[in-house]
Amino acid sequence: MPTIFAAAATDHTYVLLSLFIMLAAAKLMAEVFERIKQPAVVGEILAGVIIGPSVLGWVAPSELISILAEIGVIFLLFTVGLETKPQAIFRVGKRATIVAVLGVALPFVAGYFIAIAWDGSFAEAMFIGAAMVATSVGITARVLGSMGLLDKETSRIILGAAVIDDILGLIILSLVSSVSQGSVSYAALAKTTAAAVLFTVFVALIGSKIMNRLGPSVERLKVSKPFFNIGLILCLGLSVASLYIGVAAIIGAFLAGMALAEATEEQTKMHRLTSGVTEFLVPFFLVSIGMQLDLAIFRDASVVGLAILVTIAAVATKLVGCGLGAWGMTKREMAQIGVGMVPRGEVGIVVAQIGLGLGVISSHFFGAVLFMAVATTLIAPPLIKLFYSEDRDRDGTEDVIVQTDISEDFTRIG
Amino acid sequence: MPTIFAAAATDHTYVLLSLFIMLAAAKLMAEVFERIKQPAVVGEILAGVIIGPSVLGWVAPSELISILAEIGVIFLLFTVGLETKPQAIFRVGKRATIVAVLGVALPFVAGYFIAIAWDGSFAEAMFIGAAMVATSVGITARVLGSMGLLDKETSRIILGAAVIDDILGLIILSLVSSVSQGSVSYAALAKTTAAAVLFTVFVALIGSKIMNRLGPSVERLKVSKPFFNIGLILCLGLSVASLYIGVAAIIGAFLAGMALAEATEEQTKMHRLTSGVTEFLVPFFLVSIGMQLDLAIFRDASVVGLAILVTIAAVATKLVGCGLGAWGMTKREMAQIGVGMVPRGEVGIVVAQIGLGLGVISSHFFGAVLFMAVATTLIAPPLIKLFYSEDRDRDGTEDVIVQTDISEDFTRIG
């Protein structure tokens, strides 16, 4: 009899089973890593490596999982945006720009020359360079957010630089793709760049003002949880708009959050509602990254060498490039900004996949870049935790959060 | 240039655009319906009719959307379970059983005879009967939950009856499917039934005790929001288990919520976190139902007649059957229980799809059942609101909720 149901339910059952395994594995590893005082994100990514095709093969990457992962990171950046007042980003705008530019230039050059030295073609080398550029700010945001340090100046610089980084990455990828196809239309390139810059600047400057103006009207809506629902719509809407313009969806989500950062007095409620979604969906994002890792590359010694070299270069160039971009701040702050920009995560993977899709990069370069993307994402969180640990103790921000939770419970009991 | 990105992003862009349209349309219609004092769920289902293939064709049903819809209704029933102490259900167990049995028998017989009268085959008539049986408790739960009336005795009876209803539906569907295939294995049927009953009773009886026992250990976990995360895992886990056993995933989700209902003092926090997920995902469930409606059946006058007849019978038999099951309560309470069991929603659609898949029911019966499933789901909420409206005024439950929210904001400000 269950076979009758199976006919209708097989797909759903299998999908829900996959989601259950991913979620349970992620939370289990998060717990283990918290206990050994390591960042939970690392545990969750490793959970993906373990249950993914590389080790146990319980869950395979799929379109559905990648969509859930994308929604997860969209909500993560939306949450981060909610804690970011636009003024706080504008204030660090100049420094963030320098950090982004240096943090893009050095990795690109390093990637280019490593590939050339490894007998890569010109087009291949350009693509490896481009894959080294992207920063996956979701990882950093998750670690800093869980430490309660998103309002530090260095966190603002990292967030601002990540937005600029993404636009620069778009330009480089466009350029590299055109070059590898043999034709560059500078007019089209200029158009794409202008659209991306205009969209970002416009939403960052005007979004917040519009939402502040609309705030009272939103509160008058009859629908339940009006601010949260408007936030959901704005978040998805700007994410889609970002994709159409060519930048990552998370840029739109971040801008949506930022537009709402000042608009509402109901921050706590909004946060709690949003963090429910985040807590549920972000594990799929982290596990997905881990599942991408292909440990089979370790069977080929030459690829291992390449992968390790690319990874070291990826870490060193962001660290030095972004650190130098923060010249004039303390050494500690320079280091904080440097490590915050190290994770390549899903962005590096997407660039490598585009290169593979165009037939420009060979499979061993693809394997090495994939390894680099996951490895930098695993290396960065412990470093971030290390370089930021004293700040947390000094601020005691975590205590504040705990207090809020307790008083909420009292509210309920009382 | 954007074409380069398009290669990698098209699918995601299209999917995210669809989700954005569904969410925005659902919330817009919810707002409109709240303003004209009608239930928001009806607006959200109608949003699906409008943007779906029947009218505008902006969004089409897809595997991904149906999974998101399923996760949405899973979380909805999980939330309802969180507000349901097991004892409260056991106390009404006997009455809920009678309500379920009569609410299953009458619609089945009515569906059977309508199909026979309409020149349907024996197998076809059995299937139409089976499709009339299922109750989509998600709709009722949503309406009662938004009115703050889930703790009323009649709400408990509806919830208990819906669980039993689903098990009876499983048995009937199994039987009908076997008969239509020409062979009935009573041994297999007994096994399925036993598994479904044992699973439900076991989890309902023991789940809560286990979680109460584990509560202090859960609180000691290092992972962030431990209760919520354990809840998520339990919710998905029991949903998957339910599907394997043959009952609907929402039964498992409801049982998971109920198991946690007593375990934590952190109800408010848990609720807020869960309701964030619910608020985001339930619209996909409601819009999906609306998108299933095929208005093309109205081109064939004889199907229209059949559809309307089936719908009237579906409403009348649940109303009378379930109402009579509550004999001994006040007439008002009998009516409340009756209307609460009317919506067929996704369950009726699934049964019809299985019949179509087996080649047992013809397309005009399928169209009529589809219409009935959506129509009953649209008719019930206003009736529920009407029959429960006085209770809400008397209880003033909504005021309590508003108060909690305000004190939370003060906690933050203070």
Helix content range of chain A: over 70%
Number of helices of chain A: 17
**Binned strand content of chain A:** under 5%
Order of SSEs of chain A, N→C?
A: HHHHHHHHHHHHHHHHH
- Largest interface: chains, residues each: A-B, 83 and 83 residues
Which residues of chain A sit in consecutive blocks of at least 5 with pLDDT less than 50? 1-9, 396-414
Which structural category fits the helices and strands of chain A?
Answer: mainly alpha
Overall average pLDDT of chain A: 83
**Secondary structure: number of strands of chain A:** 0
Give the SSE map.
2 copies of one chain form a homodimer.
Chain A: H1 2-35, H2 40-51, H3 63-82, H4 86-91, H5 93-117, H6 122-133, H7 137-146, H8 153-180, H9 186-219, H10 226-245, H11 249-260, H12 267-292, H13 301-325, H14 331-340, H15 345-357, H16 363-395, H17 397-413
Helix pairs in contact in A: 1-2, 1-12, 2-12, 2-16, 3-7, 3-11, 3-12, 5-6, 5-8, 5-13, 6-8, 6-15, 7-16, 8-9, 8-14, 9-10, 9-11, 10-11, 13-14, 13-16, 14-16, 15-16
Question: Can you tell me about this structure?
Answer:
- The longest helix of chain A has 34 residues, at 2-35.
- With 414 residues, chain A is an all-alpha fold.
- In chain A, helix 3 (63-82) packs parallel to helix 11 and helix 5 (93-117) packs across helix 8.
- Helix content of chain A is 81%, strand content 0%.
- The first copy, chain A, has helices spanning 2-35, 40-51, 63-82, 86-91, 93-117, 122-133, 137-146, 153-180, 186-219, 226-245, 249-260, 267-292, 301-325, 331-340, 345-357, 363-395, 397-413.
- Chain A has 17 helices and no strands.
- The model of chain A is unreliable at 1-9 and 396-414 (pLDDT under 50).
- Chains A and B meet through helix 1, helix 3, helix 8, helix 9 and helix 10 of A and helix 1, helix 3, helix 8, helix 9 and helix 10 of B.
